[in-house]
C-alpha cells in the first residue's frame, strides 16, 4: 500500500494483522477478538486487527521485566542506544509511503496533512538520539562535609506507554524514542481506533530484533481495550506509566497508579486560548490561527479552540475569522488540495455535533458551520464551526470538544483577556497575537499553560511539551522528555583520609 495507490481518490487495500507483537516477535494471541478498521470517509471496513488479551499483556510485561532485569539493553551505552533510535528513524522514513494512507484512514486527515506528519516522526526520533549522545548519566558533586558523591541517572525500568487514536505515530515517538534511549523496556498499548500505524512500528522493531540490534523482550506493541490498559497500570512489574489521552482517563490512571506509588507521566486534554490583542494585525492572525484551531479537524489536544477578541474589535475580527475558517478546504481526504477531512469515527462525529447543540442551548450563536458540510451525506464530517456570544463559563468554553469547533469570547481589556484564558482546568497550549513581540512575550508569561506561541500556531516538538493543571504531569520532547525516563540515585563515596 503506497501513497501512489491512494492517489486514485479511493481507499487502498490493507492486509489484516492476525497476530500480536510480544517481546519483539509476532505471535498468536491467547484470545480470538478482532477490531475493525473503518475508513471514516467511506464508512466501510477496510481491515481487521487482532486485539491483545489480559493474558497477552501479562506476557508482554513479563518479557519486558525479564529483559530489563537481565540488563542487556540497559547496560549498553547511551551512544549505542542512540544509534538504534536513529536506525528506527531511518526505517520510518523509508515507510512514509506506507504510513501516509494509514494516517488518512485512522484519523481522517487528508493526505496533504498526513504525509508531513509521518515525515516529521523520523525527525523526532533523531532529535532524541542527538540529545542522548550528550546526556550525562553520572556526575560528581562535592559534599558539605568534604569529599564527593556521585549522582547517577538510571532508567526507570519497565514502561507501559499508552497512546491515543488521534496522533498515534507522533505519540509513539514521544514515548518510545526516549524510553529506548534511556535503556527502558517498553510495552506499547495502542488504541483500538488506530491500530495500523503502530503495527508498522512493530514491524521495524521485529527487523531490529532479528538483526540483534534490540534484544528480545525489550519492546511489545499491543492493540487492546481499556481493561488491558488498567492491568498494565496496576501490574507491579510495571515501573513507569506514560499516557497520552483525555483528562478523565488520566485521572483514572493516576488513581490506579497511586495505589502502588508507581511513576506516572501524563499528557492530557486542552482547551487552549488564542488572545488577539488590540494591536494585532488581523491579516497576520488569519495566516495561522484557523489552522491552529482546526488541525486534524480539531482532533488535537493543542487545538486553539477559544479565540479571545476585545469588544472594541469584535465585529471586525469576527467577519475576517468567519471568512478565514470558511475558506478552509474540506472534503475527500485522498485529494491533496483539502486541509480538512472527516472525523475519525461516527462516535466522534456524534460527540462534536452534540456539543454544538449544547452550545446553542447555552446561548451561543452559530456564525459558521454548525453541522455536516453541504454535499457530504457520507463520511463522518463536521464543518468548521465558529460560535459567537460564548459565555467563558459555559460548557463549550470549558470542555474539550475534539472537533473543528471554535468559540469566540469577548473580553473588555487585557487583564480580562488573561483572566479568561486562565479560566480553565486545562493548561496545555495557547497563543498571543500582537505587533509588539516583547509585550506578547510578557502576556504569554502570565498564561498558565505549558506551551504558548506569539504570533503563530506552530510548535517544535523537539522542545519540551506538556501541560499545567489538569493538562498533565511531566514533559515530552527535548532534554526534559528524555529525563522523564530516568531515576536519580545518589552514591556517597568515602571521604578522603585526613
TrEMBL record:
Put simply, this protein is called Aldehyde dehydrogenase
Q: Which UniProt keywords apply?
A: Oxidoreductase
E.C. number(s) listed in UniProt: 1.2.1.3
Q: Which residue range or ranges hold the Aldehyde dehydrogenase domain?
A: 26-491
In terms of InterPro entries, this protein maps to:
Ald_DH/histidinol_DH (IPR016161), Ald_DH_C (IPR016163), Ald_DH_CS_GLU (IPR029510), Ald_DH_N (IPR016162), Aldehyde_DH_dom (IPR015590)
The annotated active site, in chain numbering, is 267
Q: Which Gene3D superfamilies match?
A: Aldehyde Dehydrogenase, Chain A, domain 1, Aldehyde Dehydrogenase, Chain A, domain 2
Report the enzyme's class at the first EC level.
Answer: oxidoreductase
Family (UniProt): Belongs to the aldehyde dehydrogenase family.
Q: Which PROSITE patterns match?
A: ALDEHYDE_DEHYDR_GLU
Looking up SUPFAM superfamilies in the UniProt record yields: ALDH-like
**Cited Pfam families:** Aldedh (PF00171)
A GO MF label: aldehyde dehydrogenase (NAD+) activity
State the organism named in the record. Answer: Rhodococcus aetherivorans
Using the record for this protein, list the coiled-coil segments as residue ranges, or answer none. Answer: none
Per the record, the domain of life is: Bacteria
**Keyword rRNA-binding annotated:** no
Amino acid at each position: 500500500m503506497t501513497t501512489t495507490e491512494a492517489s486514485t481518490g479511493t481507499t487502498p487495500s490493507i492486509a489484516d494483522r492476525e497476530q500480536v507483537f510480544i517481546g519483539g516477535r509476532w505471535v498468536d494471541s491467547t484470545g480470538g477478538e478482532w477490531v475493525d478498521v473503518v475508513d471514516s470517509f467511506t464508512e466501510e471496513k477496510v481491515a481487521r486487527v487482532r486485539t491483545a488479551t489480559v493474558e497477552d499483556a501479562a506476557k508482554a510485561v513479563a518479557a519486558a521485566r525479564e529483559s530489563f532485569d537481565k540488563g542487556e539493553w540497559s547496560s549498553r551505552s547511551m551512544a549505542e542506544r542512540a544509534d538504534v533510535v536513529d536506525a528506527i528513524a531511518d526505517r520510518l522514513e523509508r515507510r512514509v509511503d506506507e504510513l501516509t494512507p494509514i494516517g488518512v484512514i485512522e484519523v481522517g486527515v487528508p493526505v496533504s496533512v498526513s504525509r508531513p506528519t509521518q515525515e516529521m516522526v523520523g525527525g523526532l526520533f533523531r532529535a532524541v538520539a542527538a540529545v542522548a549522545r550528550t546526556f550525562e548519566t553520572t556526575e560528581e558533586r562535592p559534599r558539605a562535609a568534604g569529599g564527593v558523591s556521585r549522582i547517577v541517572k538510571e532508567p526507570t525500568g519497565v514502561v507501559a506507554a499508552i497512546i491515543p487514536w488521534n496522533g498515534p505515530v507522533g505519540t509513539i515517538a514521544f514515548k518510545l524514542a526516549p524510553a529506548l534511549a534511556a535503556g527502558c523496556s517498553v510495552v506499547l498499548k495502542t488504541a483500538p481506533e488506530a491500530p495500523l500505524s503502530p503495527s508498522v512500528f512493530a514491524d521495524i522493531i521485529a527487523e531490529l530484533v532479528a538483526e540483534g540490534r534490540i534484544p528480545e523482550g525489550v519492546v511489545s506493541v499491543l492493540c487492546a481495550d481499556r481493561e488491558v490498559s488498567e492491568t498494565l497500570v496496576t501490574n507491579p512489574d510495571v515501573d513507569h506509566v506514560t499516557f497520552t489521552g483525555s483528562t478523565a482517563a488520566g485521572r483514572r490512571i493516576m488513581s490506579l497508579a497511586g495505589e502502588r506509588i508507581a511513576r506516572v507521566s501524563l499528557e492530557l486534554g486542552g482547551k487552549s486560548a488564542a488572545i488577539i490583542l488590540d494591536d494585532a494585525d488581523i491579516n497576520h492572525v488569519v495566516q495561522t490561527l484557523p489552522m491552529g484551531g482546526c488541525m486534524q479537524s480539531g482532533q488535537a489536544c493543542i487545538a486553539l479552540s477559544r479565540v479571545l477578541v476585545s469588544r472594541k474589535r469584535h465585529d471586525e475580527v469576527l467577519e475576517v475569522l468567519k471568512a478565514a475558517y470558511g475558506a478552509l478546504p474540506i472534503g475527500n481526504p485522498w485529494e491533496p488540495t483539502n486541509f480538512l477531512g472527516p472525523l475519525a469515527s461516527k462516535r466522534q462525529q456524534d460527540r462534536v455535533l452534540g456539543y454544538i447543540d449544547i452550545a446553542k442551548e447555552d446561548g451561543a450563536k452559530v456564525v459558521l458551520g454548525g453541522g455536516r458540510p453541504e454535499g457530504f451525506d457520507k463520511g463522518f464530517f463536521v464543518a468548521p464551526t465558529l460560535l459567537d456570544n460564548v459565555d467563558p463559563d459555559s460548557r463549550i468554553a470549558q470542555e474539550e470538544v475534539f472537533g473543528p469547533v471554535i468559540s469566540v469570547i469577548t473580553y473588555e481589556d487585557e487583564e480580562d483577556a488573561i483572566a479568561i484564558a486562565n479560566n480553565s482546568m486545562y493548561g496545555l497550549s495557547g497563543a498571543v497575537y500582537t505587533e509588539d513581540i516583547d509585550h506578547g512575550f510578557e502576556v504569554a508569561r502570565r498564561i498558565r499553560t505549558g506551551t504558548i506561541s506569539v504570533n503563530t500556531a506552530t510548535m517544535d516538538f523537539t522542545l519540551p511539551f506538556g501541560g499545567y493543571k489538569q493538562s498533565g504531569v511531566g514533559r515530552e520532547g527535548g532534554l526534559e522528555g528524555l529525563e522523564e525516563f530516568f531515576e536519580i540515585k545518589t552514591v556517597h563515596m568515602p571521604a578522603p583520609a585526613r
